[in-house]
Amino acid sequence: MDGRVIGHIAFSPVTISDGTPNWYGLGPVSVLPEHQRKGIGKALIEEGLSRLRDMNAQGCCLVGHPDYYRKFGFTNLPELVHGGVPPEFFFALSFDGHTPQGTVTFHEGFRADGQQEGVREA
Ligand SMILES: CC(C)(COP(=O)(O)OP(=O)(O)OC[C@H]1O[C@@H](n2cnc3c(N)ncnc32)[C@H](O)[C@@H]1OP(=O)(O)O)[C@@H](O)C(=O)NCCC(=O)NCCS
């Protein structure tokens, strides 16, 4: 807006241990505090999900606040887990009706310490 970035959303490919392909992770999403509660976050999420569908993505998942993402169709799927994240904070939305079962690993870009999954110290 007026040459200033006021909101941002990122999507990145994830891998699922059962081999289900073409799933993506949503996040982070952010809107400048003075522009929040005007529908910008909602527009970013809806447009992003629409573009994923246009790419023939099969689903999207995220770690997020339990109250915010349900209105976009995300639900907690007990069969789909991510690390030590409590199930009520991990959300998924299947675009094709298939429900994957397994563990989700986000893109390695999220591992800021640069270490391999599974060898990181607890
Ligand atoms: C989360 C965030 C992106 C929402 O952006 P926003 O532009 O303020 O959200 P919107 O105005 O589009 O709101 C969309 C809907 O969510 C609701 N909502 C907004 N913020 C909410 C919150 N903190 N808790 C619960 N509901 C919320 C709105 O009431 C609206 O509901 P409606 O469609 O029924 O009217 C923004 O608050 C933010 O940047 N927060 C800090 C960063 C963050 O926590 N990001 C998420 C994790 S990466």
In terms of per-residue confidence, which ranges show pLDDT below 50 for 5 or more consecutive residues?
none
* CATH architectural arrangement: 3-Layer(aba) Sandwich
H/E element sequence: EEEHEEEE
The percent range for helix content is 10-25%
Strand residue content: 25-35%
- What is the overall number of helices? 1
Q: Mean of residue pLDDT?
A: 92
Sheet bearing the most strands, described? 4 strands, mixed
Distance between the termini: 42 Å
Strand order of the largest sheet: 1-3-4-6
- Estimate the global geometry from the Cα principal axes: globular
CATH classification, class level: Alpha Beta
Number of DSSP strand runs: 7
Output the CATH homologous superfamily.
Answer: Gcn5-related N-acetyltransferase (GNAT)
Q: Which topology does CATH recognise?
A: Aminopeptidase
Structural class: alpha/beta
Instruction: State Rg.
Output: 15 Å
Distinct ligands: coenzyme A
Number of domains: 1
